[in-house]
User: What shape does this take?
Amino acid sequence: MTLVLPAYITETTTLHTGIVLLIASLALYVVRSLSPKNWIHHTGWGLLLLAIVALASSIAIRSQTATYFALSNMYESLMMLAMLLFTAFLVLDRRFNLRYAGWAVVILGLGTVAFATTLPMEIKPLQAALQSYWRSIHVPIIIGSYAMFSLAFVSSLAYLVTNAFRSPATPLASGGSGTGSFNTAPDSLSLYDEVTYRCVALGFPLLAIGIILGGLWANEAWGNYWSWDPKESMSLVTLLAYGAYLHLRVNDNKSPKILAWVSVIGFAIMLLTYFGVNIMGVGLHSYGKIG
Amino acid sequence: MNGVVAAVSSHFDSNTMGNPLFSATSPVPPSASSTTEGSRDKKALKATCQASKPKPSLLAVFKTIQLAIVLLSLLAIGVMVGVFMPQEGLVELSQIKAQFGQWYRPLRAMGLFSVYSSPWFIALEVLFFFNLLFGSFMWLRPAWFAATRVVYSGPEHITADKHHFVMESPLPASEAQAIAVNTLKKHGFWTHIETPDLKVSSNNPIKTALRAYGHQWSISRLGPVVAHVGILLLLIGSLMGAFTGFKAQQLMVPGDPVQSKASFNGLDTFTPNVNASVWLGSRPDWQLKLHRFDIEFYKTDPTTPKQYESDLEILSADGKQSLARQVVSVNHPLSYDGVMLYQASFAPTGKLFISVNGKPVVAQVNSQFNNRPIAMVPLGNINNNRSLFVFPFFVQKDPGVTKNSLRVFVHDGKGFVGAKKGKMPPNIMVGQGEFGNINGITVGYQKPELATGFQIKKAPETGLVYLAFLIISVGTALCFFAQRRLWVAIEPLSEAPHDPLYDPLLKTGACLSLSYTTNKAWIGCHQDMQRLKTELEKNLSTEKKIS
Assistant: This one.
C-alpha cells in the first residue's frame, strides 16, 4: 500500500522538523532544571514526544521509499536508538520526574541524531544476508537495550556528579539493595541509583534476548548460532559487564557509587560494541560500517 | 469521616538479600520468626565448626556470588582479548607471525591467538559452570519459598516494620477488609485472607485482627534461577555439540559430471568439532548433487547480488534414490537427517562460455599476463594462428567491476595486434550477454562458469541450545520485575466487650495497618504504595456506614 503524502512532507522535512523540535525541547529541559514550573515541564515533555513522532515519520517515509523497514545501516540504527532513548526517557520522566537530568538525555539523543546525519544516508538495496524477517526483530531489540544502557549511563553520571557536589548534610543514597527512602526529590541520589538500576534491569534481558534472536537468525543464515564474530563477542562482553552490575547490585550490596561506575564502564563497552567493531569493519556484521 | 492516622517512616535499611525468604524489614509471624532464628543458630554453629577446621570448603567458595562476579569479569576480559588479538582461523598464520615477530611464540603459548579454545579460557568456563551449578541451586529453595509461601502478620508486627502505614475507618472490620482486599486486587496484587477463629478471638484484641497477605510478581523471584538453569543447559548443549557435531565445506559446479556430485568421504573439508580421536559422531553416507546455481542481481543496482540460489539434491549412498531436493539460498538452508546445508559462497571456476564468430567455445583460464589470470584462446586457422587474450572481470570479486565482463586482445605470437608504443593495444570490453568485434573477429560472452560453496553442518545440540535460549529469555525477562509483598491487619475499634456472645468484627469502626516490602526498586515501590494508601483512605472512608 502506498500512502500519497503532500509534497512538503518528505523524509528530509520531517527529519528537520524533528531536529528543530528536539532543540526546542532541549531549551525547555534546560530551563526546567532552573525553574520548577509545571508548564515548562509539560511543554518540554510534549515537544519531545512530537520530536519522536517527526523522527519516526522520517524513518517511515524512508522505509516506504526503500520498500523495506529502514533499519539496515548505521544512520538508520542511530535514528532508531535516538527514538527509543527518547521514548524510554519520556516514560521514566513521567514516572520519576527527572528534573535535573532531562536535558542531558535530550543532548545525548540530539547528538546521536546529529552524528547520524553526518553518515552516508543514501538508500541502498539490501544485501542477501539482511533479507530476513529476523532483521526487524533482532535489530530493534538490541537497539532497545542500547537505549536503556544509554539512559542508565546518563543516570549514573547524574549520580556521580550530584554525589561529587553533594553538601555533607545530604544523606547518602541507600545501598544497591537497601530499602531506599521517601526522598524522591528530583535530584536525590537514590532516585538516580534506582533509575540506573531500572534501565539496566530492562536493558539486560533485552540484550540477552536480542543476542539469542541473533543466534537463531545466524543459525539460519550462516549456519552457526555462534561464530565468535567480533560483534557477537563484544555483545557478550557487554552482557557480561551488565550481568556483573546486576550481580553486584542484587547480591553483593555494593555502594551505589561503585555501581554507577560499573554502569559507566558498561556503557563504554557498549559503545565499543556498537561503533568500535564497525570501525574495524571486520567480521560478519559489517553492514553498519561507518564511512 | 474519621481522622486518618498514617505513620510512614523513611529509614534506611541494610541489605535484605542475605535472607531472601524473609527480609529484615518484613513482618514475620512468630512461628516463621523462630524458624529463621533457628536457622541462624545453625549457621552460627556451622560457622563455629568451620572456624575450627583448617580448610574452608571448596564448595562454599564455588557457590559465592563474589566468585561469580570475578568470573564474569575475567570471561569478559578473555572474550575482549579474542576480539582484539588476531585469531587463528580468521587471520592467516603468516600474517600473525609477521605482525608479532619475536613475540609470536610467547603470545601463542599463552593461547592469545586461539583464545576460545585455550586452556585458560576453557578453565574459566568450567569454573563458571560449577559456580552457576552450585550457586543457582543454593538460591532455588529460598527463591521458591519467597515466591510461594503465604505469610500472615498481626498488627504488632506490621507497625514494628519500617515501611508501614496505619489508618482508621468508620466501617466494620469485615467490610473494611473486603474493601481493602478489593483495592489491593485493583492494584495488581494477588491476595490471601486468613480465616479468623472467632471463638478464640473475642477476648484477645490481637487475635481478633483480620489478616491478609498480598503479593505481586512473586514468580519473578524464580527469574535468576531459571536464567541460570538456561545457561547451564546452554553450556551442556555446547559440550554435546562439540563431541558429536561436525562442519564441512564444499565447492560444487553445476553441470560438471564430476564436480556436481559429492559424498561425505570426499568433501573439500570435513572437521569434527573436537579432535577426531575423541569425536563420538559419524559421517552421513548419502551424497549431494547440484543441478543449478544462479546469482540474481538487483535490477536497480547490478553490483549488489539479490540472491544466490543452488538447486541441490540429496541422493542415497548408492546414488540411485532421491532423498530430498530443494533450492538452497541465503537464509533458506536445506535440512536433512540433522545436517544443515547452507549457501555460503561462490567462485568463478575459470571456465568462460564464449563464442568466436558465432561458434561456441569454452575458454579456460590457463595462463597469466602481467600477474592477471587470462584465458588464451587459439584461433587456429580461422585467423592466421592468432590467439585471443581474454581477461575476465567478475562482479563481487574484482573491485569496481559493475558487470561480469571480458577484456579481449588479439595476439599474434609476438605481440598484440595493432599495438603502438606507449599506448594500450587495441581491445574490446564484452559484457555478459553481449558481443564485440575486434580485428574482424566477433566475440560473444555468454557467461562464466561459477561454482557454489556450501557450508555443511551437523549440530545435534541445536534443540537443547534453543530450549536453553528460551529458558534464558524467560528467566532474564522475569528478573526485570520486582516482587512486592504486603501484609494487612484490620482490628475492630472496640474495647474488649462485656458480652461474651458479642462479635467485635461487626462493630463499627476499624483500624487498618499495612506494611510492605520489595526485593528491588524501592522508590517505585514507595510511590506505588503512596498511591495505594491514598486510594485505601478514600475507599475506607466511604459513606456507606452500617449502623
Q: What stands out?
A: Residues 39 and 45 of chain B are 10 Å apart (CA to CA). Chain B has four domains: 56-146, 151-217+482-540, 245-346+452-458, 349-447. Chain B is about 30% helix and 30% strand.
